Each structure stands twice: as C-alpha cells, then as structure tokens.
Amino acid sequence: MNSFGRIFRISIFGESHGESVGILIDGVPAGLPLTEQDLLPDLERRKGGKQKGTTPRQEADYPFFKSGLFNGKTTGAPISIFFENNNTRSADYEKQRSFPRPGHADMVAHQKYGGNEDYRGGGHFSARLTTGMVAAAAIAKKLMPGVTIAAEVTEIGGESDLEKGLQRAIDAKDSVGGIVECRVNGLPVGLGEPFFDSVESQIAHIAFAIPAVKGIEFGAGFAAAKMFGSQHNDAIENMDGKTRTNNAGGIVGGITNGNELVFRIAIKPTASTPKEQNSLNWDTGKVENFSVKGRHDLCVALRAPVILEAATALALVDLFLLEQKIKRVVS
Amino acid sequence: MNSFGRIFRISIFGESHGESVGILIDGVPAGLPLTEQDLLPDLERRKGGKQKGTTPRQEADYPFFKSGLFNGKTTGAPISIFFENNNTRSADYEKQRSFPRPGHADMVAHQKYGGNEDYRGGGHFSARLTTGMVAAAAIAKKLMPGVTIAAEVTEIGGESDLEKGLQRAIDAKDSVGGIVECRVNGLPVGLGEPFFDSVESQIAHIAFAIPAVKGIEFGAGFAAAKMFGSQHNDAIENMDGKTRTNNAGGIVGGITNGNELVFRIAIKPTASTPKEQNSLNWDTGKVENFSVKGRHDLCVALRAPVILEAATALALVDLFLLEQKIKRVVS
Amino acid sequence: MNSFGRIFRISIFGESHGESVGILIDGVPAGLPLTEQDLLPDLERRKGGKQKGTTPRQEADYPFFKSGLFNGKTTGAPISIFFENNNTRSADYEKQRSFPRPGHADMVAHQKYGGNEDYRGGGHFSARLTTGMVAAAAIAKKLMPGVTIAAEVTEIGGESDLEKGLQRAIDAKDSVGGIVECRVNGLPVGLGEPFFDSVESQIAHIAFAIPAVKGIEFGAGFAAAKMFGSQHNDAIENMDGKTRTNNAGGIVGGITNGNELVFRIAIKPTASTPKEQNSLNWDTGKVENFSVKGRHDLCVALRAPVILEAATALALVDLFLLEQKIKRVVS
Amino acid sequence: MNSFGRIFRISIFGESHGESVGILIDGVPAGLPLTEQDLLPDLERRKGGKQKGTTPRQEADYPFFKSGLFNGKTTGAPISIFFENNNTRSADYEKQRSFPRPGHADMVAHQKYGGNEDYRGGGHFSARLTTGMVAAAAIAKKLMPGVTIAAEVTEIGGESDLEKGLQRAIDAKDSVGGIVECRVNGLPVGLGEPFFDSVESQIAHIAFAIPAVKGIEFGAGFAAAKMFGSQHNDAIENMDGKTRTNNAGGIVGGITNGNELVFRIAIKPTASTPKEQNSLNWDTGKVENFSVKGRHDLCVALRAPVILEAATALALVDLFLLEQKIKRVVS
C-alpha cells in the first residue's frame, strides 16, 4: 500500500496540507556516511517556483532526520525523515470543496474513504508526498556507487522544443503534458528477478506512483510494436553483452544486460488547469462552471525528472541488494 | 520474485522444456465451485498453433489440480495446478547453444545464474510460464462476478488491419510486434491503494512480467502528454462519477473511478525471427551468422490477449479483496 | 525487519536516546474516530516510575499525530505517531561504553553493525520502542469491538505473591524475572491462517519482539508435554465449540475456537542488575568488575502487561482483517 | 498464510488424503548441487512406523522435483517438490465424520471454511504437510555450511527416561506429550533483525506451524523468570562474545551472539488418543461416546526432532541470507 521494496523498504506518509510529509526507510546498511546536506541538492531540484510553469508554493523542504543516524552515519536502524508543511493555503480548497475537480482524486477519494479523506491540496494523493521519495533516493544512490541516473523532459505538449511547448500553454492559459526520459548508466548485468519482479515491473510499479504518470515504455517501447524482429533485435557482439543498438533499453528478459537503461514516461497535463471547467457541484447536484483555486504547476512534467530519478533509484537499489546477496552466497 | 499479490497470492514455477510448469495460489476463499472445465476455455485460447503466425508447438495444457479442491469446491487451502511439458524438442536448443540469441534472455541468464540456468526453450523465462497465470486468472475472475475483462490485438506491425500487418511479416520472413488493448467493465469505484499500489502500478507490474512487453499506457496514455488540461480532463457530470470522455482510462489518482478501465501494451517483435542474424558465438568468440531453431510465434502479440486479461484479473482481484476488507470493517 | 502485519501494518523506528521514537501504521480503515486521548490510558500504564521496581526515568510520552487524521477521524492514509525523547541522560552510557553489558545487545549490536549502532540506552534495541506498539494497539483495539485483552503479572522471581517476589529482589539488590499471562475474550471463531500464520505463530512472533521475553506457552503449554491425551483434550459439547476445560488455550489447529485465548510469557531478569558484575572491558581487553549505570527497571515484567496486550492486539487485528475479508467475499 | 521467509521463501500445499503434498521454494541461489538423494536421509527420519509409538501409515515420501533443477544443480528458478499420497485410508474418516475430534482442527476448520474443508486425515492441517518443510530444509542446510542443527526428545510424559515415559502411555492406552530440544552450532554472530524479526520471533513463528506445538523457550526460558539478574546474565569474557554460561541460549537482543543456540518446544499429547472420549455428535446434536479411527502416533514428539530441525533451518537460512547481503554491501 504505502510501502515499496523488499530489502531497502520505504514507507511514505503525510498530506499536502497536514502537519507534515515524510518517509521511513528500513534496510539501510550501517556505516553509510549521511547528513542532511546529502539530500539537499535533489530536494532543491524538486521544488516548485524555480522556473516558469511551476507552482508558486514554496516550502523549505528541509529534511529532519528523526531516527537512524548517529555520529553522521547510518546505524542500521530505520531512518525516518520529516518535512514540515508551512506554506499551506487551505482556504483555497475550502472554497471549491463543492466541486470534485476533474482529473483529480477528489471524487474517487471521497467514494473510497467515505468522505473522511483529507481533501486539502489533494491530501495524501498530492505530489508533495514525492518529497520523501526524493530524500530516500538520495540515500539509495549512495549504495550504488558508479551508477548514474539522469532524467530530463524531452517533450512538452508534443513539442521537443520545450520553450515553445510551454509558451503555447501559457498563451492558451491552459496546463499541458509532457514526456520525461530517464537514462541509467553503470548498472551491473543481472539486476531483475523473474518471473514477476523484472526491472520493467519494478520501475513501472513505482513510476506509476508518481502523480500524473499515464504511460511508460522501455527502449524502443511503443515504437517496437511497429518493428520487425530483424530491426529490433540488438545483436550481441561482445562477451560482456554490450550491443551497438539498444532497442531493448538495457533490459532483456526483465534483466539488465549491461547496456544503458533507457525509458520514458508520459505525464498528463496538470489536472488543475487555469481554464474554466464544467463539473458537478456536489451541493447543488448540477453541472456548473468553475475554476480551480490553489497554486499549481502549469506543466508537472517540468518537476518530474528528479522525482523519476528517485523512483528509479528506489526500484534499482532493492534489486541491487537482492542480486548482491545471491551472487555472494554461491561464490 | 516469483510471487505476486498480497491476499490472492500466486507463485509461479517451471521451465519450458523441464518436466512441468505450474502455479500455486494462496488466498482463494473456501466454497467456490471449481473444476478443470472452468479453466479450459482460456487455456485453449492461450495455445499456439491455432492460427497463422503462432508456434506449431502444441501442448495439451490440461490443468492438473494437486491440492486445494474437494468435492468440486475450493477448500480455502492453497490450490496447486500443474501442466505437463510433453511436446518438447530440446535438441533444437542444444544445437544453437553456442549462440546467445539476440533479444532473448540467454545472455543475461547465463551471466546472472553463472551458467546454471535451464536454457532449453528459454527455461524459466519462457512465455510458457504464463499458462499458470491464465489458469489462476480463471479462478480470480470467479471472485469478481459482474466484471468483464476483454483484450484484443489492435495493431500488428503498425497496421490496424491485422491481416495486412501479419502478411507483411510473413512476406518479409520476419517476426513482428503489435499492440494489445484491454478493457475492463463492471469494476466498482475505489480499487487501488495509495501511494504505491495504484491500479496502474499493479497492472503495470504484472503486465511487464509477460514476456516481450515493452510499454504500457492507460487511457489517453502517451497521447495525453501532447494535450492541454482542458482537453484531457474528463468532466464529472454525475454523482456516480461516470464521465462522457474517458481520457483517464477509468483511473484517477491511481483509483478506479467507475468508468471503463482501458489500457494498452506494446509488444516487441518475437526475438526469434526466422531471418538470419549476426551474433556472438560463445565457443569461437566471434560474431557469426546464424538462424534461430525451435518453434516460435511470428507475432507473439497474437497470443497475448488472453494472457493480458489474466494479468489484469490477477492484479484486480488482489485490490478487490483488499478494498472489500476495508469497506466492510468500517461500515 | 522493523515492520509487522500484512494488512494492519506497523513500522517502528527510533532510539532510546535519539530524538524520538515512533510508529507508522498503514491499513487503518477510514472513518474511525481517533484522538490522542484514546491512546493516553495505555501509554500511561506503560510508563515507568509509577511503582516500586520500575525505572525512575520519566517521559511525557505524549503521542504526536503527524499524518492520517483529519477532523478527528482516520482518513485511510498512513498514521504516523511520534514521541519525543526528553528525559535522556546519555552521559551514563558514555561512561560505561567500554563494557558491553552482559545480557544486553551491546556486544551483538557492535558486531552486527560494525560499531555504527546508537548504543545510548540500548539505542534501537531499547524497550522504549514499545511505546509505539502501545499507541498502535490502542487503534487496533478500536477495530475489534467486543474483544477484551487483559494481561497481568502472575509471578515474580518464582513467587505468585508478587509483593514478596519483588521484595526479595530489592533485598538482594538484584533484578528479577517474572511471568505475564494474557487473556483475550470475545474473539470470533476462525482467526488464524494455516499453515504458517497460526494464531500462536503470529502472537509468538510479535511477543518475542518485546525485549527480555524468553519463552511463550499457550493454554496448558509446557504442562501439556507431561499430560496424556485423555487429560489434555477439551471435550466439545456445544455446536458453538465452547468447551468446559481449556487446555488448548482457545486455539486448535492454529485457529481460534471461540474459547478464551490464554497464554503466558517468560520474562528474564532485567539485564541491568544493580549488582556488580564481571565483564570484558573492550578498551583493556581484560575481564573487570563494573556496575551498570543508567536508570532501569528492577523487574521489567512489571511494565510488560500493557506491552503484551498491545502485541496481542496487533497480531489479532491483522488476522481479524484477513478473516473478515474471506468471510465476506464468499457469503 | 502458507508461505514463510523473505528471501529463501517457501510455500506449502497439499492435504493428508488428497493427491499430494509438496512445497515450492523461491530464492535458492543458482549452482547448488542438488539431487533427491540429498533429501532422503531427513525424509526417512521423518517417517512414521519406524519405532514404537508412531503411526503405522507408511508412505514412500519420495521427493519428485518438478522444477528448478538442471544437470544436477539448482538453476535459480523456483524449486517445486511433490510427494504422492498413496497409503491413504480415507474411509476411516468418513465413518467418524459426525464427531469433530477434540484437540483436532475439525471443528474450527468446519466453522472457518464453511464446511468446505478437506477433512480427511486432517486435510491441510495434517502433520503430513511437514514433509515439504523437511525437504526444503535439506536445501537450506546446504546454504549454511558449518552450521549443525540437532534436535532430540528430552522428555516424554514428564519422564526424561524416554522409554519409561512411552511405556506408561502404552500401558495406559493413551497418547502422551513431550519436550523436544534443539541445538544449533556454528552460527555466525549477528543473525536476526530488530525490531520484529528477532531470531526468537522467526524460529517461534515457524515452530508454531508444526502441529501440536504449544510452547517454546530459548536458553533458560521459563526458568529465567524465576532467576535474579546476577544469576541469569552470561558474563562476556572474550572479544568474540563467547560466554561460559549460556542462559541466553545464544541470543541477546534478538541477535545471535556466537554461542550455541538452544531452545525447547512443548508438544501436546496426540489429540487422537486410543482412549474413548465424549464429544459432540454433529448429526444428533448430543454428546456421545466415541473412539478415534485412523492410524496415529501415540506420541508425536517422537517424530518432531527432524521437523523442528527443518523449521529451525528454514528460519535461520532466511536471516542468514539477509545478513549476508547487509554485511557485504557496506564493506
């Protein structure tokens, strides 16, 4: 439910406008040097308000370690990290409470939780929860030295000229979707576990936990569906398994093959468009015109790269620890 | 690893050319009427050799129940189902053992398992393992009366005229990829668990366990990345959450919203193309020309619908049982 | 590792002399009325310093909810609860750091975690961690209306006259062990899951997480090993399964049978005896005489009842939710 | 439910008088030499009919590997092992079906599964299921070279002269309970995971899955509850943690400390005593006199040692693999 991972196991909690959000991490080996400073660069990248098209809400996002650290190192006990919610404007949400916002979880959360959900700012469904993922991933990355994970927006609103795609949305006074691509280098061969815990399964599982993600593809992905086998197959030419082409995106049979891991996610337009919308008014029972209040990203894809990198690191570190174990025991 | 699900929990085993493949299912409630007959229709659909472009290997695929049934009903104890492997021609694989087949798991399995893997017919990586998934799903579906799951091939080799796409591959003497779309009707509102077990996460997780799947998208999917928010949002017009458009594909915030669940997977071309390929010869250490032996599907997408339906049922039944529990306790 | 439960899932964190201890609870249904007040009675019972023979360390042990509550009710999202550590005297531990205390985890923790463990006050091994268990159990109990769980000390230092047993220890200036018995009434028939999650398995699992527990027995327990079958069997005399004798302790075949659930745990004497001891000095490498500093319970069994009740509630609620699900689906 | 273990994960299935019993094992590293012969010695020890006081039912108990082996070695894929049930006499059970046998799971199973359970010979609750545990443990032991696990009956019916205790039962024409003690040598320091997966928690969890176990104690166990701290503490005298006394039974703080691991289980008298009993007749609704049919052990404790060794190996191997992983990553 709110946990992910078998050995490096994260558990997430918090609400957008509650007191805090945070994460609990079990399975971190002892003796790893760790300070708040290690987490700040990625947390900084995750913040809104840094560039055109992102939410003006600004939070300090300072990670408070509440357990698991001693003398600047991990102890082997669970690490808990808290982030305070300070810059909330819940009144925005009270005002529009009668409208379940289209594209948001308002309606389903209301039905699933019988009206008991914390609806302010999306509550537990908010992308603000990903703060904890980013923090945990900074630790995960330290356990995989030599592995580099880099994601970037490759398309906004169908434009690969990102500036242009964003400007089109600004001009249209509308939100817009985008594509984020992630590349991982330095992975060993052999990560991923048949039959159900392939690298694709694990990454897709956690990637779809990122709000607004509606698709994922590895290597050639959907384009592969249009290809012939002779075009798609990556010829093996070396004993280490490196191939010149990489249509497989670095994964064959669900297992890393030593090539660059490449995949892309599709991010839908921010549900909270500045445009007026028609939707049901719960109070009146009628479809009415309304506009979403609150502070929102015009294009959430812009903030997604660091979150996708985090999700990727969290999926990989768990497979990495599992494989580590297997290799060592037998040899 | 080889298990999936929290409450309705499946564990898969077997190898393509070993003695058997099968599945163990824990968490099936007692008292469900069940016979081998219930499983045969979907198992029949999964078989190869039924249509142009599928493998000529034919197996009886008769499900032998080894536990968990008594007097024609489930007992509440684990259900084990076995399938014999009879029609194997392992000699095909011995011959080409020196070539790790491009696009297959041969190379990564060899590196991951230190050469101890059962390589015949792909061993544990074979799509033959999905036989167990199809059998388990037939049971899963009986626990979700009123829910219909239907998948179909919508594209072969980029052609929505399927006959044409397949003929192009036959003419080119090459294998080819395709798209399979799955639609689920009759689902209750509220399936899916924040933060990590969204409906998308669960379905994607198991869908990527199906060999050859390289992408998945829900609702508008990758097309959503090109849209404005005002285009993509499905306006809520009724108290039950039904919407006229369905860009969300029936899932908002990771939770089913009562609309049709719609998603698509991208299936790469069968790695075993009839075409000659260049690849490393492990024995000589040189790149050489070779052709894949064995009996294979020209387009695995053709056999995928029933398997994707099975994967979908297995993901949903687990979320269904989980939600069932939560709802009942409080009310 | 630091989590327990499948559906009602708790994750514990913190250190005795770190910043805080706490617990994260996933799987609590939405709509349950809940305030800090609901937790205080049991937390108060768990505190030391209330009676002769318990530690003079006093902590406020006020539960700070950090997520999962809204308008006085649970939301369905994870509930995180924090307790501050204020009344720490870590200097006590610095002084005796060179002596790994006999009966304590000092030595094994040092070896397991390579010297990176937080050793102050036992760190993550401290019984202070059970504060979170007590808090979580208060919530668990609200999900099992009609179920009463009551534990009491039945023996101190071999004496069933508890005052006398304790006085003997005070006179001897030594710590002392004890027996705690737990009785649960109002349980439905049918809790417990074959083959590995019997009621005994689940309760024993979490009971042994309580520091100082070295034995557990259900019903007649070890005495049963001395009995004949005709003496031990509880004759079934009613359709509801109620029996006049209860040697089984309310569990047959690992499943609750509707009778009172009865079990006992053996608690070893507090490792930190006031008596001088011989033990290795890590710095000198020699066995030397030393006495344990810090504030400790003379008889930890005195504080165990509320903790054992909590452990019991946490084991039962998970089995309860699981059984709930199964019953409802079929009927 | 029917699975145990996190990394070395076993899943059990089958019924006493069904077609088969068996076990599925996931997480076994590749490359381990393994044949049926490796399993036979312990399977032979588990059989009944070998000595006075055990069931006359004789089964070949030959382990059929159905997956996971290739060329005499493990492949890294799941290992499935089957045992056929040949020597069943289900008619014995039909006759006495109207009496839910006291001390057996008949009544609770009937209530839990709504009458759909396979009641023949105890069905899924039968000790015959432990055949799979014994087989899996033979594999587990091969992964822990240098570790020896040895259990023995130390008491029958309260007598440490076992022959005498058994004869008393034979004379009384009654079944009888006993104590089994297990000792493990060669374990590394550091196995066991705080807070919930202590060595005691893991061993107790699986030990209580063995039918008829009603108590467990580690080291001094229940006797510790009567001791003073100065008596119970094992003085640490060497840098390797070895102690002269071993009241802790080799576990401190839930972690192995390098000393011999010692624990005992209490086994209740066989529920199926040859003596006549009074119990409810479901058909008449009256309490009547009846005697249990079928073939049974007079003292199940006699067959328990090899099963307890197996349970112990299964608990330890999982902790061993987990610790292996952690150690290696950091160093």
Helices and strands, with pairings:
Four copies of one chain form a homotetramer.
Chain A: E1 3-4, E2 9-14, E3 20-26, H1 36-46, E4 64-67, E5 69-70, E6 73-74, E7 79-84, H2 91-95, H3 106-112, H4 130-142, E8 148-156, H5 162-172, E9 178-185, H6 199-207, E10 213-218, H7 229-232, E11 251-252, E12 255-256, E13 261-267, E14 277-281, E15 286-290, H8 304-330
Antiparallel strand pairs in A: 1-2, 2-3, 3-7, 4-7, 5-6, 8-9, 9-13, 10-13, 11-12, 14-15
Helix pairs in contact in A: 1-4, 1-8, 4-8, 6-8
Write up what this structure looks like.
- Four copies of one chain form a homotetramer.
- Chain A contains eight helices and 15 strands.
- With about 325 residues, chain A is α+β, with helices and mostly antiparallel strands.
- Chain A has a single domain (about 5-330), classed as Chorismate synthase AroC (Chorismate synthase, AroC fold), CATH 3.60.150.10.
- In chain A, strands 1-2-3-7-4 form a five-stranded antiparallel β-sheet. In chain A, strands 8-9-13-10 form a four-stranded antiparallel β-sheet.
- The radius of gyration of chain A is 21 Å and the shape is globular.
- The model of chain A has no long low-confidence stretch (mean pLDDT about 90).
- Chains in contact: A-B, A-C, A-D, B-C, B-D, C-D.
- The interface of A and C includes residues 3, 27, 31, 74 and 75 of A.
